[in-house]
Amino acid sequence: MPFEERVFSGMQPTGSLHLGNYLGAMLQWIELQKTHQCIYCVVDMHAITVWQEPAELRQAIRKVTAAYMAAGLDPKTSILFNQSQVAAHAELAWVFNCIARLGWLNRMTQFKEKAGKDRENASVGLFAYPNLMAADILVYKATHVPVGDDQKQHLELARDIAGKFNNDYNTEIRARGFDDGEFFPLPEPVITGPATRVMSLRDGTKKMSKSDPSDLSRINLTDDADTIAKKVRKAKTDPEPLPSEAAGLQGRPEAENLIGIFAALSGSSKDTVLAEYGGRQFSEFKANLAELSVAKLGPLGAEINRLTSDPAEIDKILADGAARAAAIAAPIMGDVKDIVGFIRS
Ligand code: TYM
């Protein structure tokens, strides 16, 4: 039986959201909202895999929720909530801790990057992080997961976990009326658009990230117009004029990044942008990119601030989203308990 199409994705409430989150993920979330049932989560349980000050975490959860709405996600159409309010995420994550193999998690590049040299001192949660991520998706039997390129490996792991669960428990799954033996779908990554990997504005070989110590490396969604324009003007470039087609961007990471950002913000492709700017100097291109960035992102910051000034309203939206999410997750988690052999009342 084919699975009903359902979209799930999430962002961590750590630091402020930036242009990479917006172009790599959120723009796709907004598109999918028009055609699909979508569940968008603020993954606060993932956030505490590294230390978070409680008061800051609380604020960050509200701010990310405000950013979702400011960007165009409608809490009436889509389900917006924070992960810790739906206990089924943690319950399924435990089952998946017992499905995933140590060897699989040992290969995760994000863990290696985040744990760094001091691996012994990393939290167990940081290591098991991808299992919780698989649970986030599969507790709703979500079929499509719009993310940036850096989440690809985690999604492959989620597919492996879904496959191993279906396989290990095949007899029980069939006995419960899932005749083809497929209890969980293998969720598909949706990694699309011209900016699936937005790079630092200071170094085109490094990913734009909230943990980069230089604020000039990223455009935060809460930056005001002057700051956005300044960061674009100061972005690193190379001395050559722009090429006329995308193939000419090879070996020019800063140029490729800025062209990708322009394409994503204007809803076009790198080739279309280069057809216009090929042969021209960066100074001219950057002036137009600054103008476009301010037009598209400037209003977001003001709207995020407006929404966060009413925390009670945001908390109400999160509680409503959590109740709707929990109602979808409950029967699926109930089936999981039966399948693995737990007794429930
Ligand atoms: P997080 O919070 O690091 O990032 C949120 C989303 O933004 C994308 N992203 C980028 N895209 C392009 N260029 C960049 N420089 C860039 N930086 C971040 C990420 O790919 C992501 O889509 N593990 C996830 C959160 C998560 C999740 C999930 C996602 C938890 N459970 C279930 C999907 C499904 C994370 O840390 O994303």
Q: Would you identify the CATH architecture of the largest domain?
A: 3-Layer(aba) Sandwich
CATH topology of the largest domain: Rossmann fold
The number of domains: 2
Approximately how much beta-strand content do the residues carry?
5-15%
Share of helix, binned: 40-55%
Q: What do the pLDDT scores average to?
A: 97
Quantity of strands, as a count: 5
Radius of gyration: 21 Å
Please identify the top-level CATH class of the largest domain.
Alpha Beta
Uncertain residue ranges: none
Motif ('KMSKS' region): 207-211
EC number: 6.1.1.2
Function: Catalyzes the attachment of tryptophan to tRNA(Trp).
Binding site for L-tryptophan: 136
Q: How would you describe this structure to a colleague?
A:
This is Tryptophan--tRNA ligase. It is found in: Cytoplasm. It comes from Candidatus Filomicrobium marinum. With 345 residues, this protein is mostly helical. The chain contains 14 helices and five strands. Strands 1-2-3 form a three-stranded parallel beta sheet. The model has no long low-confidence stretch (mean pLDDT 97). Tryptophanyl-5'AMP is lined by residues 8-12, 20-21, 24-25, 43, 46, 133, 136-137, 145, 147-148, 150-151, 154, 196-198, 207-208.
